[in-house]
Amino acid sequence: MLEVRGLDARYGDAQALWDVALDVGAAETVCIVGPNGAGKTTLVQTIAGLHRAAAGTITVEGVDVAALPGHRVCDHGVATVPEGRRVFGHMSVRDNLLLGAYRRPARAVHRETEARVYELFPRLKERATQQAGSLSGGEQQMLALGRALMALPRLLLLDEPSLGLAPVIVDEVFDAIAAVNATGVSVLLVEQDVERALSAASRGYLLIEGRIVASGTTTELRESADVRERVLGM
Amino acid sequence: MTAVQAALSGALIGGLYALMAAGLSVTWGTLRVINLAHFGLILVGAYLSYQLTSAWGIDPMLTLLVSAPVLFVVGAALQWAYDRFNIVEFNSLLVSFGLLMIIIEVSTQVWTADFRHIDAGANPYGTSALHLGPIALPVSRLVALGFALLLIGGGHLVLERTFAGRGLRAFAQDRTVAASFGIDHRRLGLVVGGLAGVSAAVAGMVFALGNTIAPAHAYEWFGTVFAVVILGGIGNLLGSLFAGLGVGAFSALVAVLWDPSYEPFVLFLAIILALVLRPQGLFTRRGLA
Predict the structure, then answer these.
(1) What is the distance in angstroms between the Cα of B167 and the nearest Cα belonging to chain A?
(2) If DSSP states are collapsed to H, E and C, what string results for chain B?
(3) How many CB pairs under 8 A join A and B?
(4) Domains of chain A by range and CATH?
(5) Per-residue buried b or exposed e for B145-171, using 16+ beta carbons within 10 Å of the residue's own CB
(6) What is the count of structural domains for chain B?
(7) Which ranges carry the ABC transporter domain (chain A) (predicted)?
């Protein structure tokens, strides 16, 4: 599904990612864990085409999208739930969802997709006409996820979905992610809450100071000395 | 009675202000370009309507069939150039002011600095009025209001109800996230710039119906139209309609009840007060509406 090789990213003179390589298989959930400032968000943004790669390839279903302009990457089935949710606060909940279906293929079936999103998050249906900015943090996270689903993704990029949410809401969000993954959507999950990330994913990568320093199944990662010391603090 | 008459016919002029403000407001609110050259496009629209009516003897409204497509292309080209040369909110004021001066100079070369007006014989809207009891409403101003309602109402519906409109609103709020859902800012810029050009063609035609045209008019529109854009809320179409009507009525009332020379003073004092009390604009529902 996704194959990243030799990926470098920089902000001006400051390099944020060095030679990153990772894979996400079809219908797989893969997590990237790492401390603050490791470059996790940069990695997601670069894969999504919102930050230009300085070097390397990002292959989605066999097509290298690294050089595409930001608005073309979603043509290849990639949708993003950005860090901090970033819903369109001045638009209604329903308009946020419909915006997710902006591309023609998604537009054609937006009614059906919308109904499925409401099934997954009944709360969004109740609040359909409300301004997105007036929702609680958890509801906004659901909306950001629903908006991404409206684009009919085959690869979902999730950046810190638990950020700033109460544990009970986080449970709900992660249940929804599992449900989406069960429908065959591949998920790349970036998460500071390592415990959650490792239990949601089947494989993972440890990103530290812009480099992948460990990878493996989540069981292997749990036992790795690096993960225990550098991110779990044990 | 004079006050009612003044307020009503002032509000009707406000329809023209709203038409002038709508294009400026939307390009500012979505593309983050303060396009002063828009006033130049309105001027060219007015001259085109004048020229084509004089040349062909057709109804002035029909001149839109030529001037609207021409200004669509000019508006889109302007936006393309702003994007190409990375012109944003801050430097756009300077660059577009330069462009405005160029347009005014070229207009002066073509049409001279003399006052021009559509020949009365060719302009069925110029001098007639609709009489409602003691109140007379000039037809040219009713036309202005009609076009303002049509264009702004239509634009509002497009923004609210269509995928393209939602795309534009989303783009105005968060470009990065909007791009991740496939919104192409270049194409959007061309369409929005072009439509602003069309609104300039309409505003110019409407202006030409009821007024004499001279190049310096483009400078005179500045103050009032800016006030309408700001009061209505930047990027807020319906807001610019209400603000246009309000500013028109208010200015006319000041002129009649007090003194025409106080009009700008009172108007801008009121605007400063309004901005102090409601910095987000009077009619804004926040964001694009």
Answers:
(1) 6
(2) CHHHHHHHHHHHHHHHHHHHHHHHHHHHHHHCCCCCHHHHHHHHHHHHHHHHHHHHCCCHHHHHHHHHHHHHHHHHHHHHHHHHCCCCHHHHHHHHHHHHHHHHHHHHHHHCCCCECCCHHHCCCCCCEEEECCEEEEHHHHHHHHHHHHHHHHHHHHHHHCHHHHHHHHHHHCHHHHHHCCCCHHHHHHHHHHHHHHHHHHHHHHHHHHCCECCCHHHHHHHHHHHHHHHHCCCCHHHHHHHHHHHHHHHHHHHHHCCHHHHHHHHHHHHHHHHHHCCCCCCCCCCCC
(3) 74
(4) 1-77+155-234 (3.40.50.300), 88-152 (no CATH)
(5) bebbeebbeebbeebbeebebbbbbbb
(6) 1
(7) 2-234
Give the tens place of pLDDT for each residue, B1-56. Answer: 788 888 888 898 899 999 999 999 999 999 999 999 999 999 999 999 999 998 88
- Cβ atoms of A203 and A30 closer than 8 Å: yes
Q: Is residue B173 part of a domain?
A: yes
The answer to whether A91 contacts B286, with C-beta atoms less than 8 Å apart, is no
A97 touches B: beta carbon within 8 Å: no
**pLDDT higher than 60, residue B284:** no
A172 contact partners, CB below 8 Å, separation of at least 6? A138, A142
CATH number at residue B73: 1.10.3470
Q: Is residue B286 part of a domain?
A: no
Give which of A90, A97, A103 to mutate to test B binding, by max B Cβ within 10 Å: A90
Q: Which domain holds residue B203?
A: 2-277
Smallest Cβ distance to A88: which of B163, B173, B180? Answer: B173
A116 token code pair: 């499925």
DSSP 8-state symbol, A60: E
**ipTM confidence score:** 0.92
Q: CB–CB of B163 and A102 under 8 A?
A: yes
The pLDDT score that the predictor gives to residue A102 is 95
In a domain, B142, yes or no: yes
Look at B170 and A86 and tell me if their CB atoms are within 8 Å.
Answer: no
| 3-class state of residue A79 by DSSP | strand
Residues 6+ apart with CB under 8 A from A127: A93, A135, A139
- Total count of residues recorded for chain A: 234
User: What is the structure's pLDDT at B70?
Assistant: 97
Contact A103 B170 (CB under 8 A): no
Nearest to B177 among A72, A82, A98 (CB): A82
Contacts of A86 in chain B (CB under 8 A): 174, 176-177
> Scanning the structure block, which residue is given the tokens 């370009």?
B33
User: Of B158, B165, B182, nearest to A101 (Cα)?
Assistant: B182
